[in-house]
Amino acid sequence: MPATLEQLSQIQLFASLSDEERQKLQPYTQVSFYHKGEIILHEGDDLAPRLYSLLRGSLQVTKIATTGKETVLRSLTKGEIFAAPALVGNQIAPATVTAQSDCEILTVERSVLLATIQEHPDIALQMLAVFNARLQELHNTVHGLVSERAIVRLARMILHFADQYGVEVNPKGQTLKMKLPYYRLARSIGISYEECVRLVKGLKSVLSYQRGGQIIILDRVELDAIAQGEHSENPN
């Protein structure tokens, strides 16, 4: 079904448009529902020429290496856009996108989006900023896999999720709102499940890991130091 005006306003790119301008977009939009665990896009899929955006829920983006190893590239939350090649590339999905929770995906036809951009060039600038940030994030990930120790990558990943998705402050420390099970941490920083468990346990004075992936940062200053490479390999 087409998106409502309220739903369109929830997408970062369209937040500044007037209701009248969003009404022009409505007939060319589509909202689709996906259950937790469903795959929205498979790596290598042909993409329809549309803007893909997350209206509700959360998504996980993963990529399979030639060795068969799966790596988590990023997580997406409400309002974010994805599948850039559908708009400005070869229209081939570069990665697999999976629903981490029940979610809704809003799409807008490319031709209508381009017409809107002609009237509102700031939308294109916002898109470029998003894509540039993603490229920088990918560069940092690749650089880290090549040159940084696993303990440094782990600390940076936890801090990234803390900053991006927020924390709840309590007497114990800072509890991440996003749960990060061992398998997900391992796949995000390119190490084995077993090594990830060993590293997290070695950080017991800095982190508290609870069943299901609930992480509490006990010492933010120390975790920052580890993320900067200013600590030994296995602090205790």
Approximately what portion of the residues adopt beta-strand conformation?
25-35%
> Total number of helical segments?
9
H and E string = HHEEEEEEHEEHHHEEHHEEH
Distance between the termini: 54 Å
Poorly predicted runs:
none
Number of strands: 12
Assign an overall shape: elongated
Tell me about the biggest sheet?
Answer: 4 strands, antiparallel
Tally of domains? 2
| Structural class determined from secondary elements | alpha+beta
Give the proportion of residues in helices.
Answer: 40-55%
Oligomer: single chain
- The CATH H-level homologous superfamily of the largest domain: Jelly Rolls
Question: Your description of this structure?
Answer:
There is one protein chain. The strands form three sheets. A four-stranded antiparallel beta sheet has the order 1-8-3-6. Helix 4 packs across helix 5, helix 6 packs across helix 7 and helix 7 crosses helix 8. The radius of gyration is 20 Å and the shape is elongated. The longest helix has 27 residues. Strand 9 and strand 10 form a beta hairpin. The protein has 236 residues and is of the alpha+beta class. The chain is 40% helix and 25% strand. The chain folds into two domains: 141 residues, Jelly Rolls (Sandwich), CATH 2.60.120.10; 79 residues, Winged helix-like DNA-binding domain superfamily/Winged helix DNA-binding domain (Arc Repressor Mutant, subunit A, Orthogonal Bundle).
